[in-house]
Design brief:
single chain, alpha+beta, Jelly Rolls, 2 domains, 8-stranded antiparallel beta sheet, 4-stranded antiparallel beta sheet, 21% strand
Length: 315
């Protein structure tokens, strides 16, 4: 890897970490491609994400996998691990002399992006379960990748319209932006899109949540109440939060269910299972029966992949 490649990569990430215009995003992609030509493995990792997200063009999953294979060839551990999970999830760790192009050719995109069928839990509130939406190996990888990047979790402040700490919630989390998002997380979001039939651009940045014993998220609603000024402004600017999709990344903890007290429902999935619930009714109005709580685990840590969904593409 050359110094030029490192400079190009740094410039690309600086652009992508901000509110890049369309022209700036194209520039960032060109910088990543130039860095890859200098065998910059991390640039290949980011290019895979950029192509999967469709930052500069419609999502290009084949091109994203090509970039991931380049990063694997150049020694990027994240690229290698993610490529293995997509191509051969049951295989033991692949050797460093693996033919990464051959491994990339084993990836069945249609299978990897497909979502399992829904199982009905409730009509009011609208709850659906998706068993095994991701594999246990993918769960483990997401937890390992998130662990060193966790911080105190924030909630939306209805007064200031920003994120802030709140006594109702004491767990830790990572809220992904493009600089932190992993390619595998985007694969997961594509499956959620298939399960909910909502395009990924309607999604907020995902979160991975960690609840240690005793930590909880008290009774709350995920929708924005239009009767409250700060929430009304948020709806006008970025849309209503109409749905929530949770994926349970582990199951080796005690208790820790997701509770919907208005409906008399407590639910928890096995590792890899998904839960979707609508936060609004069919008329688009906040559904009080969707008010819920993340109950604390009594033993062991609980890990959740959380994806909020808007009713339009956030501005």
């Amino acid at each position: 890897m050359s110094a030029t490649g490192e400079v190009d990569f740094a410039q690309a990430m600086a652009i992508l970490s901000g509110r890049a215009s369309a022209a700036e995003a194209v520039q960032a992609e060109a910088l990543l491609i130039r860095a890859i030509s200098q065998r910059h493995a991390s640039a290949a990792n980011r290019l895979a994400l950029v192509r999967a997200l469709g930052v500069t063009s419609p999502p290009d999953w084949e091109g994203a996998l090509d970039a991931l294979a380049s990063g694997a060839e150049y020694g990027d551990r994240q690229c290698r691990d993610q490529l293995q999970l997509l191509a051969a999830p049951d295989q033991t760790p692949v050797p460093d002399d693996q033919d990464w192009t051959a491994l990339r050719a084993q990836v069945d995109l249609a299978e990897r992006l497909a979502a399992p069928a829904a199982a009905r839990i409730s009509e009011s509130p609208y709850l659906r379960a998706h068993a095994g939406i991701i594999s246990k190996a993918e769960c483990a990888w997401l937890i390992e990748a998130a662990l060193p990047r966790l911080s105190a979790v924030m909630v939306f402040d209805q007064r200031g319209g920003s994120q802030a700490r709140h006594f109702d919630r004491d767990n830790s989390a990572i809220c992904y932006q493009i600089a932190e998002l992993d390619f595998l997380a985007e694969v997961v979001r594509a499956r959620i899109s298939g399960a909910t039939r909502v395009p990924v651009p309607f999604f907020e940045p995902p979160q991975i949540l960690r609840y240690q014993p005793g930590q909880r998220f008290k009774l709350h609603a995920d929708y924005f109440d239009p009767a409250i000024d700060g929430y009304r402004d948020e709806i006008a600017a970025r849309g209503q939060r109409v749905g929530t999709f949770l994926i349970y990344l582990n199951d080796d903890y005690v208790a820790g269910e997701t509770e919907f007290p208005e409906a008399g429902i407590k639910w928890r999935g096995k590792a890899g299972d998904g839960l979707f619930f609508a936060n609004v009714d069919r008329a688009g109005q906040p559904d009080r029966r969707a008010v819920h709580a993340g109950l604390p685990p009594n033993g062991g840590d609980k890990w959740i992949f959380s994806q909020w969904i808007r009713d339009r593409v956030p501005a």
